[in-house]
């Protein structure tokens, strides 16, 4: 199984986690997923009081420059750790 297949399987496995991940882990999952599927973030940081959008933006922006393959591996490792 190649990295893309393992990544896609991990994306599907997130739906069957035994419990809801912490907000910190949800943001990490979001950031790794976006970096793996879209690459570096573009656009301006959200303003105002949309704290959820700001947190998601910051999580993804913190990974700027990370290779897509590395983001996939990090996502996979995080999903696996959530099943332990």
Helix-strand sequence: HHHH
Tally of discrete structural domains: 1
The first-level CATH class is given as Mainly Alpha
Strand content: under 5%
Helix percent band? 55-70%
Q: Distance N terminus to C terminus?
A: 22 Å
Structure write-up:
With 84 residues, the protein is an all-alpha fold. The chain has a single domain, classed as Acyl-CoA Binding Protein (Up-down Bundle), CATH 1.20.80.10. Helix content is 63%, strand content 0%. The chain is built from four helices and no strands. Helix 1 packs across helix 4, helix 2 packs across helix 3 and helix 2 runs antiparallel to helix 4. The longest helix has 16 residues. It is flat and about 40 Å long. The two termini are 22 Å apart.
Attribute tags:
84 residues; mainly alpha; Acyl-CoA Binding Protein; 0% strand
Describe what is shown at a glance.
This protein has helices spanning 3-13, 23-38, 51-61, 68-82. With 84 residues, it is mostly helical.
Secondary structure: elements and pairs:
Layout: H1 3-13, H2 23-38, H3 51-61, H4 68-82
């Amino acid at each position: 199984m190649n990295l893309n297949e393992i990544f896609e399987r991990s994306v599907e496995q997130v739906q069957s986690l035994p419990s809801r991940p912490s907000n910190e882990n949800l943001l990490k999952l979001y950031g790794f997923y976006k970096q793996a599927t879209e690459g570096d973030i573009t656009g301006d940081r959200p303003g105002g009081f949309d704290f959820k959008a700001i947190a998601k933006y910051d999580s993804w922006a913190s990974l700027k420059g990370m290779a897509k393959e590395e983001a996939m591996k990090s996502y996979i490792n995080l999903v696996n750790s959530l099943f332990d």
